[in-house]
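User: Second chain of the day. Same drill as before.
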Amino acid sequence: MNTHAYTYNNLLFAELYDFIIEKIGRGNNMKVWEFFPRCAEIFGSPILEMGCGTGINLLPLAEMGYPVTGLDNSSAMLKFLEQKLQKASPEVRQNVEFVEGDMVNPPLKSNYFRLIIFAQSQFLHLHSDEQRLTCLQNTRRLLVEDGVVLLCNGKLEQEETWEQWREVAGNQRDEWRLFTRSSWQNGSLEEEIKLQSNSDPQQEHSFNYRLYPIPNERMLQLIKQAGLRPAPIPANLPANFYERFKMSAFTK
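Assistant: Same format as last time:
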């Protein structure tokens, strides 16, 4: 069977998402998963993750005792997150709230969150300055006065692309082999993912999505327009702490 999905609102993609992120993301840079717990220790809670997906970043924070909220516009992703929570302890479950909604206009309480996270490439799915500015303005609305926004600012123009399928993960112990390819299309980065069954090579699933780069100068202009400003790095963090993880921090 060969399936193709253009959006994240696909239950099969949600079921395979953890495997994909584990192999592409955590496998390449384990330290990035240490970043958010460290920030939670410093900035506190409640914590909101925009585009939380299946809870890969969120659940470890809940396990540490932080009250967390996950927002995602994919019912499939949230359904899989709910399945994970059913297996978690009552203490973890009571720390987690998840809401289906759009991060451009999040249906959430104002002046509530101490830490708001845009991990991985969530913000780069927004394809217009109008969307980005509205999202940032609403993010500011959700923050308490001394709250902090952490936003991944990976530089897509530095991303290596390859038009042929390239195997990035998979061995005989895994159910799937994982291939990726990517290319620039009209100023956006189109990334494709293909999973091929180890037991049946005829069974494969492919998915694609687009990311929209934002020049750094334009990003800083939008941040300022939204009423946000760069947040100073706390004294108990290394001077290059955010940069190491391709993150930026902002506050009111």
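The longest helix spans residues 11-26.

User: Great, on to the next one.
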